[in-house]
């Protein structure tokens, strides 16, 4: 039997890039398998546009790396990828698009990208073929470009081959060998290979390849169309690519003077979703579908009139793999050693270089340099095993591909999926729901809306998906008490002999505390970065409960399982077994005392402790912990008892003016208290000391833990940046995240999260500010939609800095 250190399945641009980057990191014994010929899947018919500025920090950095790679590949490998650095234009056909471009311009500054907002006249000089009627301006990024997707693939393959990789075409994978939860080999129609690492880079076949290993890869193929024209008079080489998202179309120049024109229609066509593409679909296109393409063509002809009379060479119609949230699917699955690099949503050519870099680092070094949580396969729960659900979500993503995504805008497809036992009752009480990881969660209650609070509506986009109820629920919790349903929170239990020792080896804090103790901790990676941000409650000597965010349960479970030794303690997701009701505010003790005989005094029930209690006849674990900065408890009844407890608390709270609250109020409450949010303020790229969480690290504990060496080194050397709370001078200019922060005219940071603090009357934001900048005492400014707003750093939380209220 052949052996390989890693086997990459798929000879498109993704597989080629992974093989290239693995060999760049020194892994020579790499085999790439392709069922037909290289680029015979989606790669050969890709449009080849490369745009860098994207919706997330990591995705943009991956695209920027791709451009750096594409610039040097020809010289390095001798194979020309056809890279043309012609720039890109993004037109604005509405006032809202101009606002979006201003936000993009600010966003680009944090990366050093030379994006500029240009006039319609300047855009016409760059692309003279569009009708300027109704165009209000454009964004121009000169370092974007286009290339030949097949040429790129061949260049990457050549680079990998020169460093020792073996490329086998005409070899079909027939199975993946998995034993005791990890990969052991690959079976093919040309013999088997023994390996501990498999990379599924199968493109539109990724779902089928995943199921061979028992892994669900929720890619959904769509028929994506674009047309090619013969030469058009006046079309010159070096024309920048152009997008008009309001018309849903894009353009790029073709060699010889023609144009490529495509787009994202409102009625997309999923293809072969249930069973997957046929095994012999190689170098093949779907039939031209002019009826579906006609609305895009009409929009394009209206914008570029010369297209209407141009001779069309072909309408390309080829399947592209999309995902249910529009982000790549990368990383190691629940099956150890089985990695996925798929779901490229029609911008895989732009990201191919970055994809290969991230995947190779993940495989060779155990974790990538970048924070890739938004692309991590672990973000998808088991619900995506239902292909109809994955399709419904992906259809919404495709059909709104070019739409402006306003902050806090909710997706609607596939809802409701998971609901708490209180769901129907919450609807009766006026709940407006959002969705996270399939769970329906209350954003706010319309019954709490108060016209008198309209004066607090933030300006601009921050005020679009907003309600006066958010402010009412925030203030009601601070002044009296608020009741929140947090059933969607992920709950993981670690039980059995060795449970404590195992967790001590993962947690930066000391969790070897008496039963009934709650410990706030991070689970660092080997670089000291924050992989998980959780609370750990010790329920018994050998039983611990981990609480983490709704969207992070699968991720955190995967991280913990990755380190679980064979024969170690039992690891179990108990989210579906336990509800969670949060009750917080200065009157909480009075409300709870009406429905329980438990002693709720500080002496009997101190902050960060947990007790088994009975509330209105319902047994539950009560945990004295808070994410809003007020006295209160999280209550964990069994799912079947949750509604009865909710009704009892509702009745007990009524005489005290208790208010029902949603997650939008929780977010504003936590900002005032300077509580961090994982995924925005905290990521695997930042350490606890950088995030202001050094108090949760116990370097003096006896047990060694992952990341300890890096954190010890950082303590000795000091940190170069710190997460700081910024208070904007204008209380109604709200930072939404990713806005640039400057000091003395120089960009020094970007906003991680922001919002209004209704109790303190301030616009608050977080940013990692370099310590050198703070030491210089430089004045800070935050750019909010093109306007620079002065900001000052706050050493303490803006609300209850001494923490007296949570310990009251």
Q: Name the shape in a single word.
A: globular
How far the N terminus sits from the C terminus, by CA atoms, comes to 68 Å
- CA radius of gyration is 27 Å
Q: How many DSSP H or I helices?
A: 19
The averaged pLDDT comes out at 96
Strand order of the largest sheet: 6-7-5-15-16-17-14-18
Percent helix, as a range, is 25-40%
Largest sheet: 8 strands, mixed
Beta-strand residue percentage: 25-35%
The total beta strand count reads 39
Protein structure class: alpha+beta
Q: Uncertain regions: pLDDT < 50 for 5+ in a row?
A: none
Brief description of this entry?
The protein has 808 residues and is α+β, with helices and mostly antiparallel strands. It is built from 19 helices and 39 strands.
Write up what this structure looks like.
It is a single chain. The mean pLDDT is 96. The chain contains 19 helices and 39 strands. Strands 6-7-5-15-16-17-14-18 form an eight-stranded mixed beta sheet, with helices on both faces. The chain is of the alpha+beta class and 808 residues long. It is globular and about 80 Å long. 54% of the residues are buried.
């Amino acid at each position: 039997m052949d052996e390989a250190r890693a086997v990459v399945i798929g000879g498109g641009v993704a597989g080629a890039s992974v093989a290239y980057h693995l060999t760049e990191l020194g892994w020579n014994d790499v085999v790439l398998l392709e069922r037909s010929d290289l680029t015979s899947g989606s790669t050969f018919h890709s449009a080849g546009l490369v745009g860098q500025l994207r919706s997330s920090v990591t995705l943009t950095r991956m695209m920027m790396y791709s451009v750096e790679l594409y610039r040097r590949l020809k010289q390095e490998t001798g194979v020309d990828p056809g890279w043309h650095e012609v720039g890109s234009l993004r037109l604005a056909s509405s006032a809202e698009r101009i606002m979006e471009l201003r936000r993009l311009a600010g966003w680009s500054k944090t990366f050093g990208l030379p994006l500029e907002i240009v006039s319609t006249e300047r855009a016409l000089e760059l692309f003279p073929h569009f009708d300027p009627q109704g165009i209000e301006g454009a964004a121009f990024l000169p370092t974007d470009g286009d290339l030949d997707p097949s040429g790129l693939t061949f260049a990457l393959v050549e680079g990998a081959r020169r460093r020792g990789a073996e490329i086998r075409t005409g070899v079909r994978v027939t199975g993946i060998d998995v034993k005791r939860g990890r990969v052991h080999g690959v079976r093919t129609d040309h013999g088997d290979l023994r390996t501990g690492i498999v990379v599924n880079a199968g493109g539109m076949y990724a779902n089928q390849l995943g199921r061979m290993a028992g892994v669900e890869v929720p890619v959904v193929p769509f028929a994506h169309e674009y047309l090619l024209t013969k030469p058009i008079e006046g079309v010159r080489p070096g024309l920048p690519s152009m997008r008009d998202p309001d018309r849903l179309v894009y353009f790029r120049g073709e060699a010889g003077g023609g144009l490529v024109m495509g787009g994202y229609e409102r009625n997309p066509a999923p293809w072969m979703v249930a069973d997957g593409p046929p095994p012999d679909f190689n170098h093949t296109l779907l039939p031209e579908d002019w009826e579906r393409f006609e609305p895009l063509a009409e929009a394009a002809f209206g914008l570029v009139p010369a297209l209407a009379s141009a001779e069309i060479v072909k309408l390309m119609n080829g399947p592209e793999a999309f995902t249910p949230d529009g982000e790549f699917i990368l990383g190691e699955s629940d099956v150890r050693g089985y990695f996925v690099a798929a779901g490229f949503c029609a911008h895989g050519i732009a990201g191919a270089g970055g994809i290969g870099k991230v995947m190779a680092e993940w495989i060779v070094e155990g974790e990538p340099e970048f924070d890739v949580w938004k692309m991590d396969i672990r973000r998808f729960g088991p619900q995506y095993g239902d292909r109809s659900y994955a399709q419904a979500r992906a259809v919404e993503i495709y059909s709104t591909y070019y739409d402006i995504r306003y902050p806090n805008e909710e997706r609607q497809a596939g809802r409701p999926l998971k609901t708490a036992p209180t769901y129907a009752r919450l609807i009766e009480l006026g709940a407006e729901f959002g969705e996270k990881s399939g769970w329906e969660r209350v954003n706010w209650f319309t019954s709490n809306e108060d016209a008198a609070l309209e004066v607090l509506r933030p300006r601009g986009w921050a005020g679009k998906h907003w309600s006066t109820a958010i402010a009412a629920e925030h203030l009601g919790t601070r002044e009296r008490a608020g009741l929140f349903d947090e059933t969607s929170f992920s709950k993981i239990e670690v039980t059995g002999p060795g449970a404590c020792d195992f967790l001590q080896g993962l947690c930066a804090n000391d969790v070897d505390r008496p039963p009934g103790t709650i410990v706030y901790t991070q689970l660092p990676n080997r670089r000291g970065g924050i992989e998980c941000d959780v609370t750990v409650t010790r329920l018994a000597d050998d039983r611990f409960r981990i609480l983490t965010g709704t969207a992070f349960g699968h991720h955190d479970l995967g991280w913990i399982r990755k380190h679980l030794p064979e024969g170690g303690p039992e690891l179990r997701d108990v989210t579906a077994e336990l509800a969670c009701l949060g009750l917080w505010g200065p009157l909480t003790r009075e409300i709870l005392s009406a429905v329980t005989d438990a002693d709720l005094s500080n002496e009997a029930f101190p902050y960060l402790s947990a007790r088994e209690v009975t509330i209105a006849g319902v047994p539950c674990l009560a945990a004295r912990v808070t994410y809003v900065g007020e006295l209160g408890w999280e209550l964990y009844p069994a799912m079947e008892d949750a509604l009865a407890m909710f009704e009892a608390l509702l009745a007990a709270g009524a005489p005290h003016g208790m208010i029902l609250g949603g997650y939008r109020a929780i977010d504003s409450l936590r900002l005032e208290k300077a509580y961090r949010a994982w995924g925005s303020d905290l990521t695997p790229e930042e350490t606890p000391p950088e995030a202001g969480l050094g108090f949760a690290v116990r370097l003096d504990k006896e047990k060694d833990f992952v990341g300890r060496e890096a954190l010890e080194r950082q303590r000795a050397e000091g940190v170069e940046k710190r997460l700081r709370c910024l208070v904007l001078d204008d209380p109604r200019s709200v930072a939404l995240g990713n806005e640039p922060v400057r000091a003395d005219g120089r960009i020094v940071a970007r906003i991680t999260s922001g919002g209004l603090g209704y109790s303190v009357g301030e616009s608050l934001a977080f940013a990692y500010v370099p310590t050198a900048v703070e030491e210089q005492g430089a004045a800070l400014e935050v750019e909010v939609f093109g306007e620079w707003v002065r900001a000052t750093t706050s050493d303490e939380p803006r609300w209850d800095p001494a923490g007296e209220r949570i310990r009251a």
